[in-house]
Each structure stands twice: as structure tokens, then as C-alpha cells.
Amino acid sequence: MRRSPINVLVIDRTGLRAAVDIAGTGAFAGLSLTFAGDDGAINAATESADCVLAELADGPDAADAVLRRIRGHGIDAPVILVGHNATADEAVRFLRAGAADYLDITEIGALRLSCSVWNAVRAGNVVRRLAEAEGQQNRDAMHDGLTGLPNRQLFFDRLDMSMTLAEREGRSLALLMLDLNGLDAVTRAFGQATCDGLLRQVAERLRPMLRSSDALARLDDDEFAITLPTGASLTGAATAADKILDSVRQPYEVAGHSLTISANLGIALFPAHGARAGQIASRAEAAMRQAQQSEAAYVIYTGEGDSDGNGSPSLVHDLASAVERGEIALHYQPKVSMPQSRVCGVEALARWQHPTKGMICPDEFVPLAEQSGLIEPLTQWVLDASLTQLAAWRKSGLDLTISVNLSAKSLHSHDLAKRIEATLGALRLAPDTLMLEITESAIISDAPRARQTVAELHEMGIAISIDDFGTGYTSLSHVRELPVQEIKVDKSFVMNMAQTPDDRVIVGTLIELGHNLGLQVVAEGVENAGVWEMLNKLGCHIAQGYYMSKPLEADAVREWVANSPWGLAAGQA
Question: What's the pLDDT tens digit per position in 139-186?
């Protein structure tokens, strides 16, 4: 519990100081007020300010001007704006501009001001705690635990961005895939700890060999990837390959053992050898496999022996016709309102029943669809099929809403909103029966285009949810910038929160943040009653997970609603 007073910096113009004085300085329990009007006085109070109370000037951009002035002094404390007779729309605009709260000057009084300041400071603390937890979570999720290098996910994110930049600037980029030979023999002879030490030394050798613009990652146990994004050419890539391989082959001293290993390397160039990240990577891997088979130090991709040149050509070919063959199906996982303990909607989840490979989940085939250009027709099919099913349910009296996931490329489509509007109209569905779930990575890959699309969807009345919230790079900034209605706490935090204190803190912080931003909070991965009860006490709004129901086929949804204790209230089913 906080014992020291909260230091409030009051930036007054004309009436604010008088209003505070009239209310009575001594009446503000737990607050210490410092008044400042000029820049010198503001600078003097910058470090000690826990909260700022600032009076607005007149004009539509007054809030932006005041906030810029305050942030220009290096103050990151929450700001409460005080104005004169603002409308409700203006007050909301002030909050969207970054204010923690808005007060009318006639409201200035001991109780109202104290409550506003305490709530603003509390919300600011939540944001800071979340940023710290999120930063650590991002670092752990995006880096290899053994070497500290970027992992596969982060590497491919960076590769995609590097390729976009290279295309814009009209230059090439080289990708080198490095495979180490002999690690199994080291493990058998000296144990896993020695092998781990060897891998750490490999990473330490590779780091200083690269320029600041180059990128290094560990993709697998014995596989590393390196991008050369500036001045890349076949000659330059070959020169880099020689240096890398020569360094890797030098002896290592690990745990008292002198060890040597060999390596093979494959090289592919963008755009000469492909136009997409997955394509370039698979072709560099094909070259690496050819180097292993031919016992060459390195091989530059030529197309020979490339049975996997587009990520997985046979699988891409199968995916292209999977919808027509009826292999793609939708399952629906119920979303349960925690206060009412009743289903309030479902999330549509695509499944691919491959004739020979069995069930393939979206995590596997959606990236393939994105890389091969099949994501647009796949997304349109999912939207059409899920909304058609929703219309049938609602026509028969099953009053549900539906959530559908959007990929990054779908979100950036220029006619997405128009296509969805046409589908809703044809099925006579209200826009508020549909919620679209987007990820933070989809937003940041083309933020201006994403903001425009989301704004168009919001204007139509379609709700927007940020999926996997807390695992991305820019949760806080984008939630404040976009007209979203919901955040979904990622299941990686929720599933183990009963056993892991850190996960409990993160989930509680995310829920509290949602409350402070006025957003609905959904928890994914609710697997048991203990987690349900913990989330309920934290004030989570909606739960999703196997404790309530696994994803169901369309025909099974009605039966579940009729027989489940989580089903709709009497008269709705």
C-alpha cells in the first residue's frame, strides 16, 4: 500500500489554480500539489511528478498541444486534463489523444480530484508493469534460450521486413543457411552439457563476423541462418560463406575437451531466387542439402534438386484445391460470458483434413497460404462459410455472435470491408454479429493500411479483437490507436496461471489494463475450474477453452447449447 504522498504537478493557465485553491489544498488526502506555469518551473518538477493536472486552452487541438508540451519536458507521468464545458465526444477525443482522465473545472473538489489522481496513477502503474512483463515475455518468446540468438519466428519476421525494404530500395539480399555436422557424436561422447557449450561458442564466433545490418538466428538444434541485407551479391555471399565456414571449423575448448566440427552452407538471393521469405528460405535449405550430399563446403541455389522450392509445392498444390474437394471445414469453439456463465458466441476455426497427412491445423497451413498467395480465397471462404452458418443458427433461434480470424495479408486487402459488407447484406446479418480477430504482428507489418482497414470495419459496426494479446511488440500503443472492442489474453499465459505466479501477474495485469481502457477481455486456454475461478475473481469478461468446450462441428453446437450448463438462457435455444 502506498504511504508517501502522490506528487501532482499542476500546470495552470488562468482558472485552474483558483479552482484548486477554492477546493482547499489541505483537503487532498495523500496528494502533494506543485504549481507551475512557465517552462522553468515545469522542468524543476519533472522528476518528482507522479501525475500532471493541466488546464486546456480553447480549440479542437488543445489536448494535443498540451500533451506535446508536457511530453516535451520528458514527463511520462499520467496527465489529467481540465477543461470548460467539453462535450462527451470531446472528452473521449482527449482520452484517445493520451490523457488519463478529463475533468470539468467545475468538478474540481477534494474528493473528485483525489479519486481521479489515484486512478490515473494506478492505471499508469499497470501500464508500466505490463510493459516490463511484456518486454521480458517478448524477449523470451523471440530468442533461443541456449544461445540468446533470435529464434525462427523472430528471424522470419526480420527477413520479411528486410526483403520489403530491399525491394523498395531496388537491391538484393542474401540468405545463408548453415548446418553443423557432428553434434550427435559430441553429445554421445561427452554429454548434452558439452554439446550445449559448443553451440554457445559457435554463436559467439559468428556474432562478431557480421556487420550491424546483418542478422543471425538459430533456427533448429544444428541449423543457423544469416541474412546479408546490404550489398548482397553472389560474390559477396560466397566470400562471407568462406569466412563463416573457416571460423566454425576451428577447434573449440569446451569443458576440458578439444572439439572440432564441420559444417555445410546453402545460399539463396532475393529477388533472383524467390519473392517471398518462405520461398527464399526453402531454396537456401535446398542448396544446403545439396552441399551436404555433394560434400561441398557451400552451394549457391540453382534449382537442381529443389523438391521443396516453394515451402512445400505438393502441399501448396493440395491446399489450392482443398476447398473444392471439401477438405477444409470449420469448427466452432464457444465463448462463455463469465458473469452470466452462459455462451455468448463462438469462434470459427478452420481445419484441413488432408487425405494422406490427416488433420492439419491453421498454424501449419495458414503461413503456407500466405506465402503462396492462397490466403485471400481461403479467408473469403472462411468468412462466407462462417457467416452462412451464423445466419442459419440465428434464423432457427440460436442467438449467437461469431468471431473470425484475419491474417495479415487479409487485413491489408483494400476491398476487405466492402466484401464483408456485401456478405453480411446478402445474409441479412447485422454487422454487430461479427467480430474480426487480428494479431499485433498483422497490424505492425503495415500499420497505416491496417489502421485504415480497421477504421472502415469499425464504421460498419463490426467489432475488432486483438488476438494473442500480450505476446506482440506494440500492444499498448496499438490498442490506444485502434478502435478495438476486445483483447484476448493468450493461452500461453492462462493455461499455467494456477501453477505459475509470473503468469498470474501477467494475466491480472492484462485484465486490469483492459478494464482501464474500457475493453472486453477474453481469456483463451481455460482448461479447468481452478483457472476459471481465478479469472472470475480478476474480473475477466469471457472465457474460452476445453473446460467449457472443445471446438465443435456445426451440427454439434446446437446440441451443446441445449445440454451444456453453459448453454443459452431458456427461450434462446
Answer: 656 788 889 888 887 888 888 888 887 777 677 889 999 999 988 889
Kindly calculate the radius of gyration of the chain based on its CA atoms and give it in whole angstroms.
28
Per-residue exposure over 264-290, b if at least 16 CB sit within 10 Å of its own CB, e if not: bbbbbbbeebbebbbbbbbbbbbbbbb
Q: Name the residue among 389, 314, 310 with its Cα closest to residue 355.
A: 314
Instruction: Please report how many Cα atoms fall inside a 13 Å half-sphere around the Cα of residue 259, on the Cβ side.
Output: 27
Query: Residue 537's pLDDT is what?
Result: 94
Res. 335: pLDDT tops 90: yes
What is the reported pLDDT for 572?
44
Is 294 within 8 Å of 288 (Cβ atoms)?
no
The answer to whether the CB of 312 falls within 8 A of the CB of 404 is: no
Three cell numbers written together for 16: 485552474
100 residue type, one letter: A
Show the cell assigned to 242. Answer: 568462406
Question: What pLDDT does residue 434 have?
Answer: 96
| CA pair distance 567, 573, nearest whole angstrom | 8
pTM here is: 0.51
Q: pLDDT tens digit string along 300-326? A: 886 644 444 334 445 666 787 887 788
Query: Would you say 6 and 124 are in contact if contact means Cβ atoms under 8 Å apart?
Result: no
At 506, the pLDDT band (50, 70, 90 cuts) reads confident
pLDDT of residue 110: 76
Amino acid found at 280: I
Q: Which three cell numbers stand for residue 301?
A: 541455389
How many CA atoms, within 13 angstroms, populate the side-chain half-sphere of residue 539? 12
- Domain annotation for the chain: domains and CATH numbers: 6-141 (3.40.50.2300), 152-311 (3.30.70.270), 314-561 (3.20.20.450)
Q: How far is CA 162 from CA 159, 216, 217, in A?
A: 5, 13, 14
What are the angstrom distances between the C-alpha of 89 and each of 64, 94, 96, 239, 450? 15, 9, 11, 62, 24
**Contact 56/83 with Cβ under 8 angstroms?**
yes
Locus of grid cell 472470475: 536
| Number of neighbouring beta carbons within 10 Å of residue 552 | 18
- The three cell numbers locating residue 514: 483492459
Find cell 501500464 and name the residue: 127
Which residues lie below 8 Å from residue 364, measured CB to CB, with a gap of 6+?
none
Cα angle: 378, vertex 382, 384; to 5 degrees = 115
The candidate with the shortest Cα–Cα distance to 566, out of 337, 368, 365, is 337
529 vs 179: CA distance, rounded Å? 46
pLDDT at 374: 74
